[in-house]
UniProtKB/TrEMBL annotation:
The lineage of its organism: Eukaryota, Viridiplantae, Streptophyta, Embryophyta, Tracheophyta. Keywords: Membrane, Signal, Transmembrane, Transmembrane helix. It holds the Pfam family DUF1191. The chain crosses the membrane at residues 235-259. It comes from Gossypium lobatum. Residues 1-27 form the signal peptide. This is FIZZY-related 2. GO terms for cellular component: membrane.
Amino acid sequence: MGFDLFSFMFIIFSWASLLSMKAEAEAEGIKSARLLDLLIRDYTVKSLDRDLRTGIVHTVTLPANFSGIKVDTVRFRCGSLHRYGAQVKEFHLGSGVIVQPCAERVMVVRQNLGYNWSSIYYANYDLSGYQLVSPILGLLAYNADSDLSYGSPFELGILAREKPIKIDFSNITKASNKTGNWPLCASFEGNGKVTLKKQVSPNVCVATKHGHFGLVMESPPPSLPVRKKISRWKLVVGSSVGAALGAFLLGLLLVAMFVKVKKKARMEELVRRAYEEEALQVSMVGHVRARTTPTI
């Protein structure tokens, strides 16, 4: 019995480890924005409760390797969504929205990729000259007519012909409008195209269909080293100190030159005296030698 329990626990642990390794491998190997959408879709489907009521926002729990990504999903009847619209986090879908093709129910998925995972869009889209100042927000729709636990649902289209979809970035952007520079609304198409538009109001963008959206601003040019402005009193003090130091050094130089000249003159005087004394001694010796002994 103990052996069977141990074997069962070992199998459970191994299965959990394999799932964790699989999730880690998936997270580390993601380079495509499209692949990330598919993985989020699969985890969303797995987390759904069969008895989930329509119109209720459900928070999706992702593996730890997808930390930073926030996903919410909600199921609607296509007719009700068309008549009344809906609010899904930052996305406001007005009345008249159309889901194509949709027989009865649709699963709407809202993504917030966070700043970390949003960097994937730099590799998948041409954003040269611009930088993201908000996380990427995604609004996608999938078929929810059949049992979602069997197979993967196919993607549907969301069209807002009468009233555009509003996307409010107010609570997630790091852009400051105090400088007077307003971010642009970026819409990331499935074909790799980026469309930039002006905001309709502060931190609010509009769209006519599903997709991924973000706020961007022009990248600042490389800054040159700025020379600090020196105050006048610092300049005066610095000039005075410099002048005093220069005068001090000049004085030391003059003193050194004077001492050197004085020392040289003294040496010359000593040499001259030495020569005179030596000449005097030679003269005296010569004089003594030159004298003759007087004859007595």
